[in-house]
Amino acid sequence: GCEFFVMYGQTEATARMAYLPPSLASRYPSAIGRPIDGGEFRLDNRTADGVGEVVYRGPNVMMGYADQDEDLALGQTIDELRTGDLARFHAVGEVYEIVGRNSRFVKPFGLRIDLDAVEAEVRSRLDTDEVAVAGDDQSIMISAPGGDRNAIESMVRARTNLPTSHIVIDTTTSISRTASGKIDYAAVASVANSDARSDCPTTPTAAGIIGIVLGRASVSPHDTFVSLGGDSLSYVECSIRLESVLGQLPPDWHLRPIGTLQPRPRPRRAFATIDTTVALRAIAICLVVATHMHLWFFPGGAHLLLAVVGYNLSRFLLPIEPVRERVNSAARTIARIAVPTIAMVGIGTLLGATYGVGTLFFVNNYTGPASHALDHWHFWFIEVFIHIVVVLSLLLAVPSVRRLERRFSYLFPLAVLAVMLVFRMEWAWMGDWYNLRFRTHGVAWLVALGWLVHRSDTTPKRLIAAAIVLLVVPDFFQYAPREAFIACSLLVLLWCREITVPRLAVRPLALLASYSMWIYITHFTIWPPLVEVLGIEAAYVPTLLGGVAIGITVERTAALVKNAAASGNAARTLSLVRIAYPER
């Protein structure tokens, strides 16, 4: 017959900051409720799921901290209290729910782990309150006196994706507590200095590597690179990092559950195998920059990249289910390309380039003037890429079309190629044969051809695809060296999914391939001033490296901002900055 009020507070706010109305207790049993009269909450640095640090403001907030006698004369030094608690707000009941502590998050090898959540799950599974979980950015430590070590290990691995070597379990020592009866997590963490940690390796797991590259805080052993939203832009970096840890990867590793990617030791040799698309992308972007700089004339790199786009769309975008996830993945890929392109168009315009308004909307290859010498043709490749991804995503969002594509995995791209070849005919030139090679309908056949090459997984299919390559590539550009380069490159990709290169060349090729998009969109702005100062020959390599450097800087900065928003921890963010930019 009594009303029970759950209350929440901290000593620094005279012990009380919130209460839970009894009428809401059964609906929100884990909530702290609403601010007391005269007080207010806000959530700082919210994550995507609405969790942020609780900051309290009210007349009951203390005057400040006194470290010496003189501090007592300072008067009011603070007007709000940063609690260090993480909470979310439930709009329906207008109540707050504490979900953890700011200081109770660790990130071993890129996996963001909520120690409170792990502790709560272990307690629930073991049906005991005698559980404490501590950790750092290498391992986590669980103290559970009398618990089943194997059961604890199994549930913690499932929850965190950490390997056994990074999970330290103590089932014999009683949990240390402070004088106030709270768990002494520092004592629990002291296990880190014992022999139990002595054999912990510092090698990241496959899940950790993929999580780092894709910016995923949580990666399950059942996930795949593709299901996590991986695309051709992140594939290169991910594969190189994985091979440095696990050894040679299977060709279809991006489709396999991450938990199955285990180390495959091999002797270190002077040569290494890499994905053929990595080499082709690196070579193609080098040729694109050299041709545009007038260092030497070797066209065809951008059109080869279109075929590689089709190959990679078949690998990374089309396997994704359901349709919503596939469309979301396509949208993310487009955004990763569109946003920096718009930025570079703006910078180029400020520096005197004559880009049209259509460039900002990625339609200038149709709306701009016909002269191919004008700046508006610079980003035709980006425009074609975006058009293709949008159209393909919408087309395969139709259930009947998707069923056909899945059922006839080889015939479907073959049919698409046949349709796209029709648009090479004179009636589709739009009165401008020369610029047909820069317009989406005129070069979409290259994307379809790359798609077909990827789907050619048997010798008969490869023979058919090879014949098609030799049939459709010649005469389109009316320049034999360009056509020979594209055809030969596609034949190599068709018959050799991996190629052997000197080990020393792996990292340079990976960097060029990983940041080929950044090199493409930045080189128009970088090379002209460099040529004036250094000359064409000396400016070539700095132009390539400039694109790589800009790409790395933007990606690292974006990751830092994302981490800062997720953690709300200035000290942690500063440490990440020091790690990312040690030379600064």
Key structural traits:
584 residues; elongated; alpha+beta; single chain; 3-stranded antiparallel beta sheet; 4-stranded antiparallel beta sheet
Describe this protein's structure.
The chain contains 20 helices and 14 strands. The chain starts with 5 loop residues before the first strand and ends with a helix. With 584 residues, it is an alpha+beta fold. The protein is 48% helix and 11% strand. The relative contact order is 0.07. Mean pLDDT is 84; it is low at 195-202 and 566-572. A four-stranded antiparallel sheet has the order 4-5-6-7. Helix 8 (323-350) runs parallel beside helix 18 and helix 18 (516-534) packs across helix 19. The longest helix has 32 residues, at 536-567.
Summarize the structure.
The chain has 584 residues and is α+β, with helices and mostly antiparallel strands. The protein is built from 20 helices and 14 strands.
Per DSSP, the total helix count is 20
Q: What is the β-strand count?
A: 14
Structural class call reads alpha+beta
Largest sheet: 4 strands, antiparallel
Mean pLDDT: 84
| Overall 3D shape | elongated
In terms of quaternary structure, what is this?
A: single chain
* Span of the ends, CA to CA: 65 Å
Percent of residues in helices? 40-55%
Strand content: 5-15%
Taking pLDDT < 50 over at least 5 consecutive residues as the criterion, the unreliable ranges are 195-202, 566-572
Radius of gyration: 29 Å
Strand order of the largest sheet: 4-5-6-7
